[in-house]
Structure formats: C-alpha cells, structure tokens
Amino acid sequence: MGKKEKLDEIRKRMNEDKSLPLRSGATQLVFGDGNPETDILCVGEGPGYFEDQKGLPFVGNAGKLLDQLLEGAGMTRKNDVYITNVVHHRPPENRDPHPQEIASYGVYLDEIIETIDPEVIITLGRFSMNKFLPSAKISRIHGQEQVCSFKGREVIVVPMYHPAAALRSSEVMLQEREDFANLPNILAKIRNKKDASDEQKSVGEQMQLV
User: Fold this and answer.
1) Which parts of the chain fold into alpha helices (H)?
2) Most exposed: 63, 74, 91, 127, by fewest CB within 10 Å?
3) Contacts (Cβ under 8 Å, ≥6 apart) of 73
4) Rounded to an integer, what distance in angstroms lies between the CA atom of residue 201 and that of residue 206?
C-alpha cells in the first residue's frame, strides 16, 4: 500500500470514528493537503472557519500567508510539503484545542506522521511544537532545528510561529519571514548530514564484505 492509499485509509477511519470529541460541532473532517511523498511535514493547530467549510487545512488568511512563506523558501504545498493539524475538526469559536482533544486526534496524527515518514517536521504554533517539545518556549527556539525522538526514531523539528500569530503582530511577521527565508539553509544542512551518514554507512558495509 502506497502512502496516498494509507492516508486515505486513515482518513476513512477518522470519518467513521464517532468518538472524536470535536466532530459534532464541525462541518467536516479536515485531514491534510499536499504531497504525501514529501519528506517535509507541516503540522498546525486546528481548522478554522474556512478550513471547516472547504475540508482542507490552511485555506484562510493564515493559509494564504503560509503559501507565501513556503514560496519564499522555494517550496509549494502541492509539490514539496504535506500539511495537517493536531486536531482535525474545528474547535467551537476557534478556541484552543484542549489536551484531551489533542490526545484523541493524536492517535491518528501519529499514524499520519509514520506514513509520511518525514525527515523534517515544521511545527506551526505552540500546540504542534509541544507535541515534540513539551517544555520548549517558541519565542526562544523558533526557526531553529531541534532533534527529537518520535516512535523510537530520530526526527528533526523546526518550530515556527503560527501564521495567524504573524498576521496579528508585525514583529512576529518579521521573525516568521526571516525563519522561512532561512529554511532552505536548514534543509540543506540536514540533507548534507544525512548524505554523509549514508555514505559512511555504505563504506562500513563494504568494508565488512571485504
């Protein structure tokens, strides 16, 4: 089963799961969007009004800004990233998701992450950052790569401010644009390290065969 088919299967189970705590007040499930074959996963907070109406993440004003930020980093959502959230139904009045709600959807989010199998996870806002870095403060580490453990494997997390926060603050907007502009440098460094590690592993395997 390919990644797209696996994601479709997860989406189907989520649509059938009557226990998900936010589904009763939402129009529809907002699962994910982008390229499932990418190695970059963006994780936001939860759907707002426009996302709830369209069934896609980040399609309102914050989504338009996110698209601009990605383009500034030389990427598009269609080709270079996959985007999802920590909760997949709209919280009432766009309130913050509660810990129990995050935990309920987190079972499926973990499956999404394992399916995409990303080299880099870009968290958008503190709720997604706290999934991987529960004691971190976003004001201190935004735009900086962090090494985290997820399901027994190492993953690189780059915390970013939520685009909605950038729309509310000119200072955050400036930092957000700088962080995304620097993202290609971070990604290049991560991939160079991986290439060097793979080459070293290959050399070691060849020596064992001699």
Assistant:
1) 3-16, 49-54, 61-72, 77-80, 99-116, 126-132, 138-141, 163-168, 170-209
2) 74
3) 180, 181, 183, 184
4) 9
Whole-prediction pTM value?
A: 0.91
What's the domain range around 33? 3-209
Question: Token pair for residue 115?
Answer: 């399916």
Distance CA(156)–CA(202), nearest Å, equals 22
Which two structure tokens, joined as six digits, stand for 207?
A: 């020596």
Q: What number is the average pLDDT over the span 156-175?
A: 98
- The answer to whether 151 and 107 have CB atoms below 8 angstroms apart is no
User: Could you read off the pLDDT of 136-163 as tens digits, one per residue?
Assistant: 999 999 999 999 989 888 899 999 999 9
How far is it, in rounded angstroms, from Cα 179 to Cα 184?
10
Whether 68 shows a pLDDT value over 60: the answer reads yes
Count of the separate structural domains present in the chain: 1
Tokens of 156: 């690189």
CATH of the domain at 71: 3.40.470.10
> Is 192 buried (19+), middle (13-18) or exposed (0-12) by CB count in 10 A?
exposed
Which range among 70-84, 111-125, 181-195 shows the weakest confidence by mean pLDDT? 181-195
Q: Please, how many CA atoms are within 13 Å of residue 69, restricted to the half-sphere of its CB?
A: 29
Nearest in space to 119 (alpha carbons), one of 193, 172, 177: 193
**Spatial separation of the C-alpha atoms in residues 138 and 153, rounded to whole Å:** 23
Termini Cα distance of the chain: 37
